[in-house]
Q: What sequence folds into this?
């Protein structure tokens, strides 16, 4: 299931400043289109999605708990609104559901961990909260078009993995 990232409005580069470990470079999340926001000072814009502040707060929560199986309720509580309202506003802001966004975030963390080369795919799967290596591999392939091993070999061949 591919998310709809074809929103016409402004794009915001969401660079996540947190790192997977102290040795890894900052993780970069792909640019996700966000709907434009209204009057500054309003906490939530029901017609336009979450405010930038609360959207980044939700993404920070996802990043901090990337290896845990958190619920939509916990995520909404971190932002301070009901789960139904949060889910609707998050989808308006990003074009995807919060849980699909969290899955994309897990795959981005997995890419960074795999390229460091200090962990096997099974260890990466367990560290990021996947049920098992098979679940991780299927999800990784669905999101990237490559298996974890193919991704590492391709990056090494092209010089991406330094």
A:
């Amino acid at each position: 299931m591919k998310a709809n990232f074809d929103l016409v409005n402004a794009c915001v580069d969401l660079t996540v400043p947190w790192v997977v470990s102290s040795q890894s470079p900052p993780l970069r999340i792909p640019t996700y289109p966000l709907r434009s926001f209204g009057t500054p000072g309003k906490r939530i814009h029901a017609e336009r999605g979450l405010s930038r502040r609360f959207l980044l707060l939700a993404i920070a929560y996802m990043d901090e708990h990337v290896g845990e199986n958190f619920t939509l309720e916990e995520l909404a509580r971190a932002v301070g609104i009901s789960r139904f309202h949060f889910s609707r506003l998050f989808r308006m802001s990003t074009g995807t559901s919060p849980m699909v966004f969290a899955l994309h975030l897990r795959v981005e963390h997995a890419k960074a961990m795999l390229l460091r080369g200090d962990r096997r795919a099974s260890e990466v799967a367990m560290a990021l909260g996947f049920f098992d290596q098979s679940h991780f591999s299927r999800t990784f392939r669905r999101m990237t078009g490559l298996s974890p091993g193919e991704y590492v070999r391709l990056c090494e061949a092209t010089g991406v993995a330094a």
Q: What stands out?
A: The first helix runs from residue 52 to 64. The chain has two domains: 11-97, 103-158. Residues 17 and 26 are 6 Å apart (CA to CA).
